[in-house]
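[step 3/7] inverse_fold.run input=structure_tokens len=220
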């Protein structure tokens, strides 16, 4: 590995990804305290000096990983936003079908193995890095809820829903859509729901939400 600190331009992004992947795997397996820069370098097939050159130290590397997770949440939010506008909604029946599709897209996004693994890592280190945990929460779960709250306003204005507290309603929808499958997957990563079960959970989430917030004046 001699000389790999002077990486050609084309190799630098790949080496950086290798370091992040190796560090993430080790952090997940051994925890932050139980992982050394020497172990990360060996797992990434780079020198220790390369790790320091790319990230400075172990804490900055960990922070970069969490920042990457938070940044990935922007993609999830964009997909969630698109799901709300994928079909025209003119009735409560349309709304329930659309919300079922939103719930399914949301569920698929948060059940990705890498998302779950990194979420576990952030939670495990929340006491050590409370600022990072808060950043992740604000840019991932909280961002999704705010987006849903904004979108629900369209259907309140259209007279399909009656919602006094949109953020509360958005949080309830998110938990209806995610909590059963996500909680199980967080503790039992090998027990992912299949497509049929994801569809069932998504339809049930939409049905319960619409039953709770359906406008009394709206007709199906």
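[step 3/7] decode complete -> sequence:
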């Amino acid at each position: 590995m001699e000389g790999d600190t002077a990486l050609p331009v084309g190799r630098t992004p790949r080496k950086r990804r290798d370091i992040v992947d190796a560090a993430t795997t080790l952090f997940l397996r051994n925890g932050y305290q139980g992982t050394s820069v020497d172990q990360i370098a060996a797992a990434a097939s780079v020198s220790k000096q390369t790790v320091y050159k790319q990230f400075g130290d172990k804490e900055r590397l960990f922070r970069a990983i969490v920042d990457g997770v938070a940044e990935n949440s922007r993609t999830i939010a964009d997909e969630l936003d698109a799901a709300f506008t994928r079909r025209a909604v003119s009735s409560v029946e349309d709304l329930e079908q659309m919300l079922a599709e939103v719930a399914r897209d949301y569920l698929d996004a948060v059940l990705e193995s890498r998302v779950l693994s990194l979420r576990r890592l952030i939670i495990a280190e929340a006491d050590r890095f409370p600022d990072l945990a808060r950043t992740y929460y604000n840019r991932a779960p909280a961002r999704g809820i705010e987006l849903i709250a904004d979108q629900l306003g369209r259907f309140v204005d259209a007279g399909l829903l009656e919602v006094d507290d949109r953020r509360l309603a958005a949080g309830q929808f998110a938990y209806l859509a995610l909590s059963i499958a996500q909680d199980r997957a967080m503790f039992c990563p090998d027990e992912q729901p299949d497509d049929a079960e994801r569809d069932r959970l998504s339809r049930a989430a939409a049905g319960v939400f619409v039953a709770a917030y359906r406008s009394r004046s709206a007709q199906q």
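[step 4/7] annotate
Residues 58-84 form the longest helix (27 residues).
The CA atoms of residues 102 and 121 lie 27 Å apart.
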